[in-house]
Specification:
The chain is mainly beta and 54 residues long. It has one helix at 23-29; strands at 7-13, 33-39, 43-49. It has a three-stranded antiparallel beta sheet, with helices on one face. Strand 2 (33-39) and strand 3 form a beta hairpin.
Length: 54
């Protein structure tokens, strides 16, 4: 279980087969906030935060 205000980072190489399109939307649909992508030519990383309970 992830603590409130915890951050998640999912990293993918260009060989992973994971398209970057839609990743932040899926994180938001799962209840995460501040979802964003960080990317280079070789990889991308999806970052997001679990909101505080309350």
């Amino acid at each position: 279980m992830m603590k409130p205000s915890g951050r998640i980072a999912l990293g993918f190489t260009r060989y992973s087969g994971q398209p970057k399109e839609g990743v932040t939307e899926k994180l938001a649909a799962a209840g995460f906030t501040e979802a964003q992508l960080v990317e280079t030519n070789e990889w991308f990383c999806a970052l997001a935060t679990k909101p505080d309970a309350g």
